[in-house]
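The instructor's notes for this session suggest beginning with a concrete chain rather than abstract definitions. Hand out the sequence below and ask the class to guess, before any prediction is shown, which regions might be ordered.
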Amino acid sequence: MKIDAAARYRSSHEWARKEGSLIVTGISDHAQESLGDIVFVEFPEVGKTLKQGETFGVIESVKAASDLYMPMGGKIAAVNEALGGDPSAVNKDCYGAGWLIKFEPTNPSEWDGLLSAGDYEKEAAAH
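After discussion, reveal the predicted structure:
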């Protein structure tokens, strides 16, 4: 299982990484391995504001469909349009080309409540 040490995590397997004033989010390596081959991603509308823990979309694989949860509250600034044509990028590079959304955080202090890479690794290994 690969972990991005620069990211923070939710126990529901979404990662968040600071990129300038935005937060980039995707699903963890553990999540993409569990799901199997990703076939579709449903994104939120750009400009939509969501609270921490709210569903921002759905990711579908050959095995299952899973809701995606906001790691922090924020306003959607971008979605990874490239995944519409090639959702398998999530499987190949979940921390890079397979990112899902970018958002402007509405409450930056929520960052401190996310799991560190080490804590997430321990939690994911236990499941």
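Then share the key points. The chain has one domain: 9-106. Residues 9-106 form a domain with the OB fold (Dihydrolipoamide Acetyltransferase, E2P) fold (CATH 2.40.50.100).
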